[in-house]
Amino acid sequence: MATRDGGAAADVVLFVGCRAGSTSTEHWRFPNRDVPILHIDIDPMVIGANYLTEVGLVGDAKLALEALGTEVQARLAHRNSDAVDGAVLAGRAKAARLAQLEPLANSLDAPIRPERVEQSLNRLLPDDAVVCADPGTPCPYFSAYYDVSRPGRHFITNRAHGALGFSMSAALGAWLRLHGG
Hints:
Elements lengths: L12 E4 L20 E5 L13 E4 L2 H15 L10 H20 L8 H11 L5 E4 L4 H8 L8 E4 L8 H13 L3
Parallel strand pairs: 1-2, 2-3, 4-5
């Protein structure tokens, strides 16, 4: 098996709070159906709804990941000597994605490229910025290029649910949450 960029396929895929619907999986092409799936979701009806699931964990995503992280950390010293470092692979994938972004983000073409808008927002928004987006065109660009790895940043969307107008109420809710309203 190989990924679309020619790299090796994953040994396992972990869905967290994800319905794994047609939009997020490119019409169920990725991940490959032969890859074992682990799925964490608070709604038991979501787990395994679109992919055969080897292990389903019903619970809060943050709590489940914290518990899983504790278990994994305890076992790292005992992993096989030929195990691949996932952080290195993720770093390579992120660097490749940024390399794709740069020429598009630096383009001075008109109309303005969405990647240029994303790069500008990444540079100009404060570290505690909360961005809310309606489903549709903004979602793939923000999902791909918005830098939420900076502590305090959040991206809120209701992708693929056809809820146009969602971002206004989400922004109001985020503001109230942040300002104690």
